[in-house]
Every structure is written in C-alpha cells, then in structure tokens.
Write a structure and sequence with these properties.
alpha+beta; 6-stranded antiparallel beta sheet; 5-stranded mixed beta sheet; 33 helices
Length: 819
C-alpha cells in the first residue's frame, strides 16, 4: 500500500492506492468521473455523497450488502473478528448445518470486503474497518428508516434523553449496582445485555408472555406501540431495560439485547453464496439450435409482414403519442398473435429504426427508408439487426396496457415506456443462460432468485409508476421475448446467440445461416383456388403472390387463396391478365388449375370497364346498359350519382370513396387520371423521411474505457500533487494560505520561471484561463520566450504553453517535494 501508518481518512486511503486500483474504483462507480475530480480529496468527497453512495449500494450483491449492513450496526471502527461474529453468530444456535454455513461465510467474507473496499464504501485495515459515514447513515437504524438487519439503536442511543432517575430505576430492577453517573449506568446496562451468562439468568426469570413479546421484536422491526397502562409482560420488560421508551407510546428493543436473543447474528439468514440456476430440462443442443433458427426466421418474417401491412401508411398516431388500443388489436389480428406479442413486435420494429412517424399533418406511422435496405439483406443479417437492437433497447413493451404514475394508460409506441434497467437485466439473464451447459433450459424462478441476490436493492421499481419488482418483471419478459425472437429455442440458449454475445454479429450470422431454410422459387397451385408454399419464398415471388392472393394460413407451409378481390388488387398494381398467367405458369410445380385461369380472365375482362375520375368524381363507361344498371341499383343511392351523358355519371363523393362503393356492389372499376389514363396503384410506395432509430435511455453514466480511465487517473494524481505539494514561498511574499493561488509580481514570476527552466526544477503556479477559471498547477519550465512559458504540466501530464500575463504568481517547491 505504500503506507507506514494506517489511513486516518478515506482520502488518505485512496491516496495510498496504486493507479490500477483507482481505475477500478472509477470503472465501478463511473458517476465519480463527471466531471473528473481535481485531486484525491475531491474524489473522496464525491465518493461520500449520498447520491453516489446510494448508486454504489444498489450495485452490491446480497452478501456484500449484508456485510455493509453488519458494519453499520457494528462499533466504528470494527475489527474483522467482530464483523465475522455478526455474520456467523456466537455459536449458541449451532444446528446440524450451521457449521457449514459459517464456513461458507468465512470463505466469502474476504471477497465481500474486497468489493466494498474497491468501491470506496469501506476503508481502513482489517483491524479497523470503517464504513463510509454516508453509508452508515443510510443503513443504520432509526424510527423512520429501520435497519435492514432489523436491529434497533444501542442502549446508549436509546437512553440519550432519559432522566438519571429512570436509569437508576432500571438498574435497580435489573439487579445492577446503582451509580449516579449516567455514562456508567449506560455502560452497566450494556454490559448486562452483552454478558451471555447474566443475560441468560435474567431471561430465565421472565414471564412466558414477556418472552413472546421479545420473539415478535427480535428480528425486526424492533419498535412496538404500548398503551399508557402497559400489560404486565411489557411492564416487566420495560422496567428491566429490555424495552426502552422512544416516545410516550413507542418502545424499542435495544441492539445489545436483540443480538443476545439472535445468538449474535445481525441477519436471520446470511447468504454468502448465490443461489444456483436450476434446470427444468436438458435438451439436444442441435434441436435447440434448429428450434431457435426456425423462430428467428419467423421473427424476421413477422416484422416484414407488419411493415408490409403499413406500407401505404399505417395507423394514425394518438394525440398523446403511440397506438390506440383499437389499432393494436387490428395489428394483433393481422399478425395472428396476441396483443402483448403484437406490442413487442411493433416496439422492436420501431426501436430498430424500421418504423417511424411520417411527420405529416395527419400524422401516421409508416416504414422508414431503412426498411428497404434491411429487406434486401439475407435473413440471418436481418435477424442479427433485430437481435442486437433488442439487446440494447430500453423501451419495454411489457408495460403496454399498464398505467403510469399519474394513472394514464401506457400505449404501444407511446411515451414513458423506457426503463433504463432493461439492457442490463437482459444481458444478465442471457449471461446466466450462457453459463449453463448447451441445451439446458433454466427454471425461471431460480433465474429470478439469482437476479435478486445479485442486485437486492435494485429489485424495487426504477420508475415512479411501478409498484412491483421491476427487474423480475423485465427478466420474465426477457425469457418470453427470447423465445419469440429466436434467442433461445425450447427454453435453452442457442449457439448463434452465444456467438452474438461472445464474438459479435458476423459470427452469429455465420452460425445461423445454415439453419435457415433456403427460399423457394415455386408454389403448388391447387384446384380449390389456393396455392401452397412449402417453405419460405424468394422475395420477388413472395411480393407478387401477396398482391395476387390472400394468406389463408401460416405455419410450416403457407396457404394462399385467390379471390376476385385479390386478383383485382394485382390488376390495380399494373399487371395484365397475360402477366398473371405467365407468372403462375413460371412458378407453379403443378399445372395451373382451370378455375384459377377462368377467375383471372373474368376479373380482367371486367377490370377497367368502368372509369372513375374527379367531378367531384365521375363514372365513365362505353356500355350504357351498365350505367343504367348502376343507377337502378338501390345500393347506389349513397353514391349520389346523376347522368351527365349516355356514357358518363357524376357523383358528389371523392373518387376513392366511389371506387370502394362500386367495388362493394360487385363491379370492378378502375381509376383514371386527368388525361384519361388508367391509374396504377402500387403497394409499398409510402415512406417516412429518413429517420434515426430511437436512442436508448442510459442508466447512469456510461462505463469509461481504459483510455479515459488512464487519463483520469493521471489527472487526479497530478492535481493531488499540485494540491498537496510542499511549497516554498518567496522571502518577501506573504505565505500563501492553503488552497489559495500564489501571488507574485510580474518581474518575480519571470525571474522564477527562467531560473526553473535553467535548473530543470518544478515550480508551483497559479493560473487563470481565458474563461476566468483559476487553478493551481505544478509545472517544469522548458523554455521562456515571447511572453510565454513552455513547460511540462504535472497536473495535466503533458507539455503546455502558458501566457505569462495569466500566471498570478509562482512559488518554488520544497526540496523534498519535487514531483
């Protein structure tokens, strides 16, 4: 450690650390780096602030936290043996397995202390362990904030406001010698409660009801309410100091008495070892990989199907943001999934940057230009993009349908769905699965138990609107979403996911590619106006078939059904009957059924027979009989038609509504332009302007990289040198007070830095930069010319040039203080 005497403060303990240890502290607690502390004293001060200590405690595992809690109720400072005794007890309750448990605690305690010491939550040698004062205040007991250990205040703390007469009464009733010194009285009572033999004799005389009262208080909370006339058992305990008054109606079991009743243990159940993640099934790894790959391919297709359904402009955006409940239901029906699953796919697509708002006045969701690039990638690369997005996203679709802190419903794609704990929990769950043997499916309850052990203080809500264990809920959602996305297969982690976590996207895609079925270039046409795709189809074939037919069922084989409406949809997209016949003949492994050929020809013969334009709109047809038939049909009344000429009708509604109305009546009209040409409607033409994917909401400061850590440690060391170095003031200048800038005249400053440059020595300067910020620096001048001094700055650990007029003063360093 480089110290000959024990540290007296946390700053001294940190100053004695090596650079690697300081870098480890900053890595574990990155909030200490914002901004970089000027010296070790600032680092220690910041490490002791309440917000920073709370954040550090939240990152402790259960046993490290139990160790800190035990130190909070131990004497300050506490020897290692005292701390170990609080965790293992005094041996009076040894059971069949107590010896093994105590041995496990003894084995785990050094590592827990190392963790606490590395994170600057404790300091001092093992014979004088000190918990940081802020942590002691957070974990120590009080009536408003009971200790996590369930222990109450000490006898000295509980009797601080008690009258000497009342203390004498307690001593007399407890059979202790009287004393007029309150300190001696407290010491005598504390000694009684910590003396195993005498305490045992006192409790042997207690009524059974009094022991029942102690049993209810011993493991906490230690406070109880009493009436002005307490029952005899409570009065017996109060008269002997086993219950001490906190107020007129509240009593407390003092810590020393509770520890005796607990056999010296601070915790009912110390947990030195993490609970094991148990398996519910051991499956064939190849079967796991195949199942996961199939689900990964289905995930890619589901996202593509969702975006295709919103190609022409998706649902409208609520005024408060997000999808309405009705639109989410429609999406779930279209994808043939439940609403929570539909919310997951919508949120994932949005987070991947494939979906966004179009920004129009009538704001709607639509695919982004990035979707077109994504759709051209191989299936394995498309999955990698979705999986890496899912790993990092903070939006939490599992919250959809719940309420925020103000009781407002949380909608898909709406605000307030970000939970910064999501990525960390997700990675931790997958790390637990990766630690199991390939093919092992874990028990979800044991996964949750392990997560609670690793971060016990962070199980509570991370958002004001959540009232249950948020991390556990995210963990369960992670397990479900992993199965949906193909991260896992049949509950076990897939090989391509292990590669994604360990090696990166390229290796994951390479492992997944052979498991994804090759796209087919053919279908099987059947006489019942259906087509069967026995596997995934090539993209051009799938796009054309989706325009020509409706999907009837999905699964290992997709069934498409041809209808007059679907054929008309293909004709509206610019295809001719001859194009459709040629397409089916080229891509069918079976002969084209005659009913399908008749269907195409029949719809094509009627398609475009009627023409729709703007009058508001009009109907034009060369066959007068058809127009007469339309006018005679009662269903056309809502279209508000009137004859303009033998071959033309005018309508008072817009062309799109007129098209839909006539199609509902069984006709196949076509829209035409102002020039009289047939308008072709193409699917997939609507895109949002270029959008960037939403940025995940970070959970606290990011973990700094090694380069930043090294620079920060050097800056802190140099600043500490400048702040603590021994200075030698000029004889004719007043001694600089601690922390103040040196003050010298311009001539004295110039002469001192020139002398330092000639001798190669270091000096202490005060410097004011262009922004007016003042700082102290230790520099070794190299060259002085033109009103500037070029020097190696020990504070910044680099060579810099300073204008002489900005140096407030200079002082030589003591001979033994040269850096």
């Amino acid at each position: 450690m480089g110290m000959t005497t024990p540290p007296r403060t946390l700053a001294e303990a940190l100053r004695a650390r090596d650079d690697e240890s300081l870098a480890g502290l900053l890595r574990a607690r990155p909030d200490l780096l914002t901004p970089v502390p000027g010296d070790i004293t600032q680092l220690a001060t910041r490490a002791g602030t309440r917000a920073s200590v709370v954040r550090a405690l939240e990152h402790l595992d259960r046993f490290a936290l139990q160790t800190a809690e035990a130190l909070a109720v131990a004497p300050d400072p506490a020897p290692y043996e005292t701390l170990l005794g609080l965790l293992t007890g005094d041996g009076r309750d040894d059971g069949e397995h107590r010896g093994d448990a105590d041995a496990a605690i003894g084995d785990a305690l050094p590592a827990a202390l190392t963790t606490l010491r590395e994170q600057a939550l404790i300091w001092g040698e093992d014979d004088r362990l000190r918990l940081v004062r802020t942590a002691r205040e957070l974990l120590a007991p009080s009536p408003q904030h009971p200790s996590p250990t369930g222990l109450g205040p000490t006898v000295a703390e509980a009797t601080a406001g008690m009258s000497p007469g009342r203390l004498q009464d307690i001593l007399a009733t407890a059979g202790l010698p009287a004393t007029h010194d309150p300190v001696s009285a407290v010491t005598s009572l504390s000694a009684l409660f910590t003396d195993r033999a005498r305490m045992g004799e006192l409790l042997d005389t207690a009524p059974a009801e009094a022991l029942s009262v102690l049993d209810r208080l011993v493991w906490g909370p230690p406070y109880g309410e009493v009436t002005p006339n307490p029952t005899p058992p409570v009065k017996w305990l109060r008269d002997r100091g086993l219950l001490l008054p906190v107020s007129t109606r509240t009593v407390v079991l003092p810590r020393e008495a509770a520890l005796h009743l607990r056999a010296g243990r601070a915790h009912r159940v110390p947990e030195p070892q993490p609970p094991a993640v148990e398996a519910v099934a051991n499956r064939d790894p190849q079967a796991v990989d195949s199942a996961a790959a199939g689900q990964a391919f289905l995930a890619v297709n589901t996202v593509e199907e969702l975006l295709k359904s919103w190609n022409g402009g998706g649902p409208a955006i609520l005024r408060a943001g997000g999808l309405s409940v009705r639109e989410l239901k429609k999406t779930a029906t279209a994808l043939d999934v439940s609403e929570p699953v539909a919310a997951f796919w919508v949120e994932l697509t949005y987070a991947a940057g494939l979906l966004a708002s179009d920004g129009e006045a009538d704001e709607r969701y639509a695919p982004t230009p990035a979707y077109d690039d994504w759709a051209e990638l191989p299936a394995q690369d498309r999955w990698v993009h979705l999986a890496t997005t899912w790993l990092a996203v903070t939006r939490t679709p599992g919250l959809v349908g719940g309420q925020d802190a103000k009781g407002r419903a949380l909608s898909a794609l709406g605000p307030d769905l970000d939970r910064s704990a999501g990525p960390e929990v997700r990675h931790r769950v997958l790390a637990l699965l990766a630690a199991l043997q390939p093919g092992t499916a874990p028990d979800p309850e044991t996964v949750l138990a392990r997560l609670r052990w690793e971060r016990p203080l962070r199980g509570a809500s991370a958002s004001a609107g959540d009232t249950t264990d948020l991390r556990s809920r995210i963990a369960l959602w992670t397990l479900n979403e992993s199965e949906l996305l193909g991260i896992t297969g049949r509950g076990a982690l897939a090989a391509h996911t292990r590669a994604l976590l360990d090696s990166g996207p390229t290796e994951a895609a390479a492992l997944l590619a052979p498991l994804i079925p090759e796209p087919l270039d053919h279908v099987l046409l059947q006489a019942d106006l259906t087509a069967v795709a026995p596997g995934p189809l090539e993209r051009p074939l799938a796009d054309m078939l989706s325009a020509l037919a409706d999907i009837e069922s999905k699964g290992g084989a997709t069934v498409y059904r041809f209808t007059p409406g679907s054929v008309r949809r293909a004709l509206d997209a610019g295809q001719s009957a001859a194009d459709l016949h040629a397409f089916l003949a080229a891509h069918s492994r079976t002969p084209v059924p005659q009913p399908l050929s008749y269907l195409i020809d029949d719809v094509a013969r009627r398609h475009g027979h009627l023409r729709i334009g703007a009058a508001s709109s009009y109907v034009r047809c060369d066959d007068e009989a058809v127009l007469n038939e339309i006018l005679a049909d009662r269903r056309s009344a809502t279209l508000r038609l009137r004859r303009l000429a033998p071959t033309a009708l005018a309508a008072q509604i817009d062309p799109a509504s007129l098209l839909d109305g006539l199609r509902e009546m069984g006709y196949a009209p076509a829209a035409e332009s102002a020039e009289g040409d047939v308008l072709i409607t193409r699917a997939g033409a609507r895109r949002t302007p270029p959008r960037t994917a939403p940025v995940p909401v970070p959970e606290g400061p990011p973990v700094p990289d090694s380069t930043l850590l090294g620079a920060a440690v050097r800056a802190i060391r140099a600043g500490d040198t400048a702040a603590t170095v021994v200075r030698k003031d000029p004889a004719d200048a007043p001694a600089a007070s601690s922390g103040s800038l040196p003050r010298t005249t311009s001539a004295e400053t110039l002469a001192t830095v020139q002398a330092a440059a000639m001798t190669g020595s270091a000096v202490w300067i005060g410097y004011v930069n262009a922004d007016g910020a003042a700082s102290q620096r230790v520099i070794a001048p190299v060259r002085v010319e033109g009103g500037f001094v070029t020097a190696y700055d020990h504070t910044a650990d680099e060579v810099r040039t300073y204008p002489l007029h900005r140096i407030t003063g200079v002082a030589e360093l003591a001979d033994d203080a040269t850096p």
